[in-house]
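Worked Example 4.2. Consider the chain below.
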Amino acid sequence: MNLIIVSGLSGSGKSIALQALEDFGFYCIDNLPAGLLPHFVQQLQESNPDESQFAAVGIDVRNRLFLDALPATLKELKALGITHKIIFLEANDSILIKRYKETRRRHPMTDQNTSLLEGIELERKLLEPLSENADLRIETAHTTPKQLRSKIRDFIGSDNETPITLLFESFGFKRGTPLDADFVFDVRCLPNPYWQPELREYSGLDKPIISFMGEHEETAEMATEIQNFLEKWLPNFIEEPRSYLTIAIGCTGGQHRSVYLAKKIGDYFTGKGYRTQVRHRELT
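Applying the procedure from the previous section yields the following structure tokens:
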């Protein structure tokens, strides 16, 4: 079991941190009462006992009725053989006040007798045990969401994993460009097997078309250049908070050239360790 506790000051970016962990494959739950942690962990382990479990739990002052019991809860986890790590997010008072004024949300420690600044000071005091025992402390005053995701990815050791899914979709221009495409590549300039009557009935997934496309040097050049372009820019998209990137590859009818290249390029990125999906719009 890989358990991460995400805590920190209200307005410091805990929601973004939990969203990042969820994108990295963690089962995430926010504001779970601390006393339920052992039960939560046991339930996860029992659901898939043969698989590694990755879970993250958000605990902060919204949990203040249970914070006093947290040290005992963590000892109970240790007795069960469950190790955990704590990520604590913080920012200076002026930044937190500015963020709350921008969102107009109520700080969980404020009431008719407690000002925002007093609430932040009280929150710091209540969360001191978590802050002092944190495995990773992140100052978010001048940290963008993109940088925060990167720090969390490095901390959990997921630098070789790509949370983004690449969807390669072949299509025919005569039926319109896919509306959800992030990139569109036009491969109508490549040799067209449609003009070979004996090849028309096949698709780009069939051996006769694969052989035909493989005989032309420009086909390989096109595939290589698309792959190089995507490899250059994919790291920038991975740093962004998005889950899918759709690459549409189109030919005239969406039966031969685009199908062949979508499958070929999809296989290439699968071999590189990316999560990929290949869809052939006109074939389905």
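The radius of gyration is 25 Å. The mean pLDDT is 88. Compare this with Example 4.1 before moving on.
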